[in-house]
Structure formats: structure tokens, C-alpha cells
């Protein structure tokens, strides 16, 4: 309906893709608000020469947080509510923030502030918000920024390449009498890794190996939220190395690359793809690794959530496929039983999710470092 600021140029192909990627394509009886993200290949020639500060930013930012030249990220806030005045009986609208930066936490938090207002007040709201955002300082790695928007100050630290891997973000101490008290984000980009990986905790080693090898992997999920979080979590397991293959946190059958991925005449590309439409079970069953996630149901009090099992690919033929990792891949590493026991204990003791995530992240960092050191 509307692109703001008006002078932002998108090609027709990009507009169409953004439209399709902004709505859940699975049958979602879910009413209310949903947030998810996607990544989109830019089309057409270089329309805007990359900003001059790209070079400096990219030199100082961690590899995984560099500005993308060939892709856009889209951060989506989708609302679906019953509305008898609409022809289809529902109000369905998405506000999408498009950026070349992978700051998923910052941008999704920003959308939580803006979107509800936008659905009410429409364009004037975007105009006011963009005027505030225009005043924001550029993201300089290593700096803590105070970003005022809609009567709130978001405070966030931009990670730097010289940060020690695995250290927690520096405690933010420059709260110079900010009024109102700032909304402090613990990280611009880190997901709740423990929550994302709950159904696959016992397979973390295998997934790390598949990511390291750049193997083609499909994540089939019940919603774009689950699919995009899982893909982003998977591509972050090699940190501080950058995941160098392509990845699509959410992908639909309308995508211009759809034919490329579903053809059986050539091997699937090195890509991690998140999908929700059951149609993909048929069209992607020749892919070597398929992670099928169900609705997340916690088992009993203090139990590990139901873990998906590793199954033979041949079992994928049925359309009512059960959750599981469908692959014939043989891992090089053994499961890390002590890690799993610690995380289990954490669930029983109701340990906060961020502590569980930190344990998981440190474990993955040690895996990556022990792989890199001999090289």
C-alpha cells in the first residue's frame, strides 16, 4: 500500500516479493499479532551506491553483523483481527521494516512500539517516527546508543569486532539521567537460543556440523515466527565465524527462486530455508536434510520439551509427517551428554532462559574454536 520514506526505491520484483513474504502462508487460525523476519535477494542494478560509512562500519563490526550488499532483511509485524466491515471479515495488515542490517532484536522491538500506532493512525505515524529516526546517530561498533522514538528511549550497544567472543555485552553504565528510563535491549541481534533450540537440544552437535559444512537444510515449521527464528538461530551457531551460505528465514512458493530450489535435475543449493506451507513437503522431499518442527508443547514439569527424533528420509513420503530431523547424515561428533544434563537441570530449577542460552552459546563457541584452532 505504501512505502515510506517515499524516495526509497524498490524494484517491482522486490515489491512483489516483500508483499508475499509479509503474510503467513500457512493456514493460521491465529488471531492477534505475529512477528517474524525474512531475507530477500536484491534485484536490479545498484540503485544506491552503498553509503560511504559502509566500509568503516563493516571493518569494525563482527562478521555476522556486517551490512549486506546483495540482500535486504525484512522485519514483519502482522496483525489479524476479526472486522465485519472488511470484505473478508478480517483486518489483515503487515508493517515491514526493510534494512540491510541483521539487527533482529532492535528492529522487532522498534516495530512493537510503532506497529500498533501505525494500524491506528497510518501514514502520519510513519512520518513522525521517521523524523525521529533521522536524528539517530549511525551505528558505530563498540558504542552504546540512545535512540528516542515515540516517547521511549531504546538503549542498545552495537557489538564490535574487538569484543571478546563469548563475553556478555558490557553492562551499560551511561544512563545519564535519561527520562523516561530507557528500554535497555540486552543485544541488537542475539535470539533466545535456548527457546529456539528446545525441541532439538539433543541434536545441537549434528546441526552445528550441517551448518559448518554448508549443507542444504529445510526447516518446516507451523508458523513464520518459528521458521524465521529457527533459521536465524541455526545460522548463528558458528559465531564468531560468519555463516557464508545463503539463508531464507521464511520462504514462500511465490518466491522467484522457488523453481531453482524445487528442481530435481540438480542438487539443492547450499542454503537454509524456512517454510510453513505443507506443499513444500512434496516439492522438497529430495533435499538431503529436513527439520520438521511441530507446535512447541512442553512435556511434564521440568522435563525436556519433546525432542524431535532423527528419521530416515524415506519416511518423509507421507503428508502428515511427524516432527523430526529427516536425514541420513552420520555425525562426526558424539552428543554432549553433560551439556544436555546441565540444560535439563536448568529447566527443573527454572533457570532463566538467558542463562540457558548463554550456556548453549558458550558450548557452540567452544565447538567452533576447537575446529578452528588446528587450522
Automatic annotation (TrEMBL):
InterPro entries: cDENN_dom, DENND6, Tripartite_DENN. Transmembrane segments: none annotated. GO terms for molecular function: guanyl-nucleotide exchange factor activity. GO terms for cellular component: recycling endosome. Keywords: Guanine-nucleotide releasing factor. Residues 1-375 form the UDENN domain. It holds the Pfam family DENN. It comes from the Eukaryota. Belongs to the DENND6 family. This is DEN6B protein. It comes from Serilophus lunatus.
